[in-house]
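#random but structural
TW: two for the price of one
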Amino acid sequence: MDQKTAHLGWIDYAVITGAMCVSVGIGLFYRFSGGRQKTTQEYFSADKSMSIIPVGIALMVSFMSAITLLGLSAENYSYGTQFVGINVAYWIATPIICYGYVPVFFNLGAISAYEYLDKRFGYGARITASFAYWVQLLLYSGVVLYAPALALEATTGMNIVTSIVAIGLVCAFYSTIGGIKAVLITDVFQGGLMFISLFIVIFTAAHRVGGVGEIWRIASEGKRIQFDNTSSDPTVRHTWWGLIIGGMCTYLSLFGVNQVQVQRMMTLKNIKSARVAYWVNVFMLSCLSILTCFSGLALYSHYYECDPKVTKRIGSMDMLMPLYVMDTLSSIPGVPGLFVAGIFSAGLSTISAGLNSLAAVTLEDYIKPIYTWSSGHEFSEKQSIICSKILVLVFGILCIALAFAAQLLGGVLQASLTIFGVVGGPLLGIFTLGMLTESTNQIGAVMGTLTSFAFCMWIAFGQPRPVPPALSISADGCSNKTSDFVGKILQSEKADSYFYLFKISYMWYSAIGFIITMVIGYAVSHLSRIFNKKDADELDPDLFFPFVSRRIKRRRQHLTEIDVNLSLQKSCLPDSKYNNISKDRE
């Protein structure tokens, strides 16, 4: 099984270049068609002219990055199939988004999701949340560039600098000139390439071992088929409880209140279309997730007798999928290039989504308010669109720089991915606090968010922490036996010696952040009500979940009817009796 890793040929590079040119071509098309991206509504919201299927696919690919394709397949190879259970959480969370969060954002009609927090709580809450999102997504976009480039360099010979600069510049170019329309349509094309990449891996593996059933049999014998972990212990890495509860909170934070997804939803014409798009998204997301997980079993069927990490052919399990493609398909010109194009597309879809959303948030939450405050004038439409395009380009270049920073700072890769999960819980908490509760205020919302974020950061990055033991691997099929080395890497550390909170599974971080934000936010709001006179009766009912909004409207209608009756009765009732009725009304 030991062999020298093959490299990409000129035909492969031609295929990759062709795929990149398609994305650029889509950007050019939308630059010179339609409204030509001359208004911020068209640039950021496509004038609400998009159809359901492209938006549904775009929702799916926005956070299915190259890291997901490479990492999730490696997850199932190393730890088994328990992670597939997270798809149940996706289907449970989708109706909550459709009938809870979607109506609120759609009624608001704002480009920036964080404008909601301004209207509900105040500008302080808006800046707190948008800044956390700004740092989170910018850093993550840099990591999305770096991680696949590193894996591809080690396994295909593709230069890491070439990968980072090519993806970054192409993404910045078509996102800048084409706006949200170009981003959404390229997402559809790139999503197709992602599926093709997975089919290449699964079908070739099935052909080599004798069918899909044989892949399953080999995985079962290697104890990779795992769906039975129902432990309630939060320190267990993946259990049904953690995957469903933690997965729901993560999904709600990414698809319910995240600027990237809210902005995509706002390109549709009405709430009904947005709901259908979310159902298209969850169906496509589950299909891609399950295929990616099964691709990990396909990889195991090829390497189960000679693990490439043991033989030191790769330094990280994220390199496993591209290594497999080069080992098995390098003799077929163009096929490895098609696979790499799929990996690039996964990165392009995530980064382009981030660039457009970062520009929208920066313009709406920072530049416009500061300009209006300092000059006393509103930002003109022409100024807004020019500024938006400059911001997208600048953020694209900044992502490239951060990708190289991640290359120099090795620990930043894992840290950045963890931050992406840690920030989601507090952000979900502050939005839900505003939409679900009537009596919470800005002081409570900000305090709850900051406290939750600090606590989650502590338990996520506190040291020392145990390393989860992977399932057994083998080197029996290798020409050079490495059984002694295998025995060492399979030894698991005793977890009892670690601080309990540092042992908690990362799947619970989002749920913990959400709960802390809600509890502290609600408690502090009640303690500080004396300093904040603003209550739910002064707010727009549409800022709340529909069932809360209906309750507020019924209460206001009832009070209005009482006021009308009191005014009619005042002239004919004694003052003492009228005063008693007024007190009852209050």
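TW: number two ↓
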Amino acid sequence: MKKYIISLVSLLVLITGCADYLDKQPDDMKTDEMVWSSRIETEKYLANCYAGIPTGHLHQHEPWVGAADECNITWNFYQADNFNRGDWTPSSELVCDRYERFYQAIRSTLTFENNVDRCGELSSDLKTRYKAEVRFLRGYYYYLLLRQYGPIVLIKELLPSSADFANMQRAPYDECVKYICDMMDLASDDLPMHYWDNQTRLGRPNKLVCKAVKAIVLNLAASPQFNGNAEYTNFKNHDGTLLISTTYSEQKWKDAAAAAKAVIDMAEKYPETRLKLYRNDENGDGEFNPYKSCVDVQLKAWNCEVIWARTEAQYDDTFQRSWMVHNTPGPHCLGGVSPTLRLVDAFLMKNGKPIHAAGSNYVEKGFATKGGDNWNPNRYDTSTEDGRKGIIADIRNSTAWGHWEGDWNMFCNREPRFYAAILYNHRVIPSLSDDKNIRNEWSTGRQKDGFGRAELYLGGAARPSSNYANYSKTGMLVFKRNDPQADMYNRVYPQNYACTYIRYAEILLDYIEALNHYDPTNPDIRKYWDEIRSRAGVPSAFEATPEIAGNEGLQNEYIIRERQIELCFEGDRYFTTRRLWKAHTPDEIIKDEVTQEERDGRIYGDGGSMWGMSVDAGDVGTNDFRFEGFYQRAIFEKRIFNKAYYLFPIPQKEMDKCPGLVQNPWWSGNVTN
């Protein structure tokens, strides 16, 4: 019987469940001979191998932001809400459940690798490179499975439809890690270092991408969840094979550090890679501005910090535009992607100290009596129309930033990354034109002054009534990855956007974290940590908090805090708290020593109390920016987190098809842990 291959217009449906073949012949299918004899069709099939890569739709189709302790998604029909309510089981139909999809994509890479040599229209060099690409993709899909589901079934070769898929068993975690790393090494051997000389291929894997994925996988494998975790003692296959080693290995941290350092060494040894932390002045464009650097690194496609991304030709950037609509406050936008106070509290002060550290100069209560250092660098007279337009232009150009007079002190004198990430009450909304009438639509009553500040309290323009659906439940919104040059009133966007999967800052953070676990006095820890802080415009951690130096435990906590800040809203925090085995940290509420007010007492924990502002306080008719009741800390949600949630369950439909599989820990029966 002939086998048929789906063309690019169809999604990957070569298998269902473990490996069911389609033997029918719809009109949009082509025979083997038609596909593998044609360069066009072969390259279409290769493009189809990329189709399983997630698109980075972080507020809708991927729960990683809204189900982590850094954020809340207002709408309960987005799937983060299922996780936060504990409303999911192995039988749940989840958009982010990609078990079958990733195995379909893996099958496609094996099919391609086995058949590409049949295409006489491709040169031998292209065949070699294309085979390297699908090896990378196979390893990457296995990494995504490993990260989400834990130990996986490894299918390393194209198997016939008669193979006993139903009784295949999961491979031990360390074996999965080794196979992924082997795929990255094999792919790297036959891929170029970069594609700057042929930018039509940007988005394809290269040596740097392969080495970066290897570093990320090894960092995951070295982390407490998978490195000596005694709670997985009974996690075994039916034949008794232990799936996650319960013996701690320091060598895993050494391997992770070495892999991350290999990426750093390539960046430093080969300038043609153009890989470094992005700064706004990297091309001699004016003075260094840490705020603008932190804003633009998220928006400028293929800037020097990007290791791997996909651009508009490969990626539907309406997802990025949708992100902005969901993050901009009403009335004309949705404004419901909301940072938690746990994240807001994590950001440093401008002197580099955490807010509760001695000498931080943090003030929780009251209103600022003057603006910050950079609020009006061109000294405009904001009481005039020209001055109003001038400072709005500076805000939209990211040359004016920081707190204004009248901002709540909690938000004042914070580090640049705070202002690049958080839109808080009373802050001027950047992504509106300077048209006074338009900006006044974002204002109520006597606050119509042409500046268009975020009114996030009950009765404000972003929440005019208590039954209004589109509002922030924490009293703050995400600003990160929002283009200040966009016009959100008319939905006009000044550029095309990329979905960035890996950037250099993540590799630097991986390196110093791994190094700290076995060599906490190594000078590289300060060297690369200082680079991250320098770009962020804050003093070295070793100057701001010298007591941490050489102390593995303290340094680790501060490195993870740095990661929490630097990579916020990028999908990292969800997996970081899990790999650290910290997501189940018990709820704790403490009282301020002076005011006796309650606040969040934890820095980790995805269950229990989540905190924001008092968004329901006061009166619709009288609330305004000066209403202090809004700024009181309040619990906005009680979340459920059971230990089962550390790993996604294997979908029940797959368990039913494949009795050789064992389910992930704590997913059988009623979960009470």
